[in-house]
Design goal:
4 helices
Length: 281
């Protein structure tokens, strides 16, 4: 065993102690490596990747599928357009949108069935082709803002006959608050019914007289809306009639055979003034 001089041994020990203290001081001042956010499993030598925030899972229904949205749901912009139309109608007329209308009317009409052209339509002695009449009518239809579409039936009751008309109708309306002017055009079928003769010759069957054809009508009206549901108004109209008559059998036309045994035709006019009441939904 080698022996070191005592002087050298004490110096070496002091140097070793100083080296240990210096190393410890360096270790304490050196920063620790950054910690990784978790490992894939305990004891793994590889650091895991940084974690990401969890995303919310969509709701699941039976079978992992969600039900489709309803097809009746309004499309984008439809609800807004509807609200704008309703607001414009309310601001213009002081009432909401109207979709369905019903109307009844009564008044006076003068008719001349062969005013423009006559060819053996009615003889004028046994059955008169003209005269004043009481008018009764009713109509119904739909409305979209300013436009109405519908149907109207009318009967003009004259002393010698009743003139029935069944027409399709289109109207243009101009809302002005509580008052509303409108213009209408209608056209359809016209026929005479309940024909009776004044002092008929013996053997003459007036009920067998068959007259029918086409009619067209132009009208202008002014309605006053008491509230959004009810209106009162008046209408004036002019009417064009294009009519034809079938010949009577010889037995029914015997006393006036020369007239009613052959066909007849006529182009006539009518003018009416009626009061009306309307319901609006």
């Amino acid at each position: 065993m080698a022996h070191f001089p005592r002087g050298h041994g004490g110096a070496a020990g002091a140097a070793a102690i100083l080296a240990i203290l210096w190393a410890a001081q360096l270790a304490a001042q050196t920063p620790a490596p950054p910690a990784y956010p978790g490992r894939p499993y305990p004891g793994s030598p590889y650091p895991s990747q940084p974690g990401y925030p969890a995303q919310p899972s969509p709701p699941l229904e039976s079978g992992g599928l969600t039900p489709p949205t309803s097809s009746n749901a309004p499309r984008p912009g439809e609800a807004e357009t509807y609200q704008q139309l309703e607001r414009a109608e309310r601001e213009d007329a002081g009432r909401g949108l109207e979709f369905v209308w019903l109307a009844a009317e009564s008044g006076y009409e003068y008719l001349a069935l062969d005013a423009l052209h006559g060819s053996s339509l009615l003889d004028g002695r046994v059955i008169t082709p003209s005269g004043s009449a009481l008018v009764l009518g009713a109509g119904a239809g739909v409305r979209l803002i300013f436009l109405t579409l519908g149907a109207r039936v009318r009967v003009a009751r004259q002393s010698a006959w009743d003139l029935w008309t069944l027409n399709g109708e289109v109207g243009l309306h101009l809302p002005m608050g509580e008052l509303e002017p409108s213009f209408t055009f209608s056209a359809g079928y016209a026929t005479l019914a309940s024909v009776s003769a004044s002092s008929p010759p013996e053997g003459f069957n007036a009920e067998g007289v068959d007259v029918g054809g086409f009619n067209g009508r132009l009208g202008a009206a002014l309605d006053w809306y008491l509230n959004p549901l009810l209106s009162l108004g008046a209408q004036g109209s002019v009417e064009l009639l294009v009519l034809s008559r079938s010949p009577l059998p010889a037995d029914d036309a015997a006393p006036v055979l020369s007239w009613y045994a052959r066909e007849g035709s006529g182009v006539g006019l009518g003018a009416s003034l009626t009061a009306r009441v309307g319901l609006h939904f």
